[in-house]
Amino acid sequence: MRKARAGSKRKVKEIVAESSSTSDPPPAAAADVTSTEDPPKVEKAPTRRKRVKAPPASDQPEFFEEKRNMEDLWQAVFPVGTEWDQLDSVYQFKWNFSNLEDAFEEGGLLHEKKVYLFGCTEPQLVPVKGENKVICIPVVVAIVSPFPPSDKIGINSVQREAEEIIPMKQMKMDWVPYIPLAYRDNQVERLKSQIFILSCTQRRAALRHLKIDRLKKYEYCLPYFYQPLKEDEFESSTVVDILFPAEPTPVLCEFDWELDTLEEFVDEKVTDEEILESQKEDFKNFIKEKVREARKANREAKEARKKAIEEMSEETKAAYDNMQFYKFYPVQTPDTPDVTQVKSPFINRYYGKASMVL
């Protein structure tokens, strides 16, 4: 009996040692290891499910403002020539171009017509909440034409020596179809689109990788248009821009070969100390060369226009004759500045003035 009890005690000690080595806490009766009674079972308290209160039923139905079919049209059009760091300021207001949208509705100016749209911005001093501020106002120009008005972009500024006329695609721009919201899931409608917008695929995130000159080109861009049936005002111009590399500072001026006398013009610059007496002859020869270049350019432009007209079909001539330009400003709303007093028919140096301002 003693040997049996001793063996029993050793066995109990082994069980206790094993239970203490596990991560579970020891049972409450582990202190009395010789007890022959089973430890009392501890029953877990029943868990209660939390009742989730249903939200109170609203008597009023919930309404969401329905988007207009062409509400994002003005935003889809790239604002050509706007500085990249000013783009966000253009969209700080919720501009309303419902006048542009209405123009495509039945009875509107642009209804069932083939239209090409480009955007631009006009910095203007306008009243904002009782205070006058300079705001970049978005503008959309609509061209009614059976074919794209141009596939080129003009790049020009006071800082640049010469104007550049380059293909749009060099600046990642192109005319692309615009699909109203109601038809964006219908691929067939893309083939029937009568609305084309000037789009730019240059990503703003990649701007930091561009060279400064390339970056600045975007700011100097102007949508280009050439009307072969009308003489360009620059073809008949007798004025040349002069940028003479004088010392200590360059001379920037204009010379009109019909109105200005070369000798008097040069002497005046010497008198005003814009050039030195020793630079007089060089300045005179510089002007003569610029005048020769301008005369040659005017002559070549007239010849090119004459040839283009001769080769043009009657259908194309009629299209140019009937081409219309419409300039849309945002509609006045309580949330946007009043731009009524700053509306202008002038589009840019290539397009000239709009047929109508809305």
General description of the model:
With 358 residues, the protein is of the alpha+beta class. It folds into 2 domains: 67-227 and 323-358, no CATH class; 229-322, Ubiquitin-like (UB roll) (Roll). It contains 9 helices and 13 strands. It has a 6-stranded mixed beta sheet, with no helix packed on it. The protein has a 3-stranded antiparallel beta sheet with strand order 4-3-7. α7 (262-271) crosses α8. It is globular, with a radius of gyration of 39 Å. The model is unreliable at 1-9 and 11-37 (pLDDT under 50).
Layout of helices and strands, plus pairs?
Blueprint: H1 2-21, H2 73-76, H3 87-90, H4 98-103, E1 115-128, E2 131-144, E3 152-155, E4 164-167, E5 173-177, H5 187-191, E6 195-200, H6 212-219, E7 221-223, E8 239-244, E9 251-256, H7 262-271, H8 280-311, H9 314-322, E10 324-328, E11 346-348, E12 352-353, E13 356-357
Parallel strand pairs: 1-6, 10-13
Antiparallel strand pairs: 1-2, 2-10, 3-4, 3-7, 5-6, 8-9, 11-12
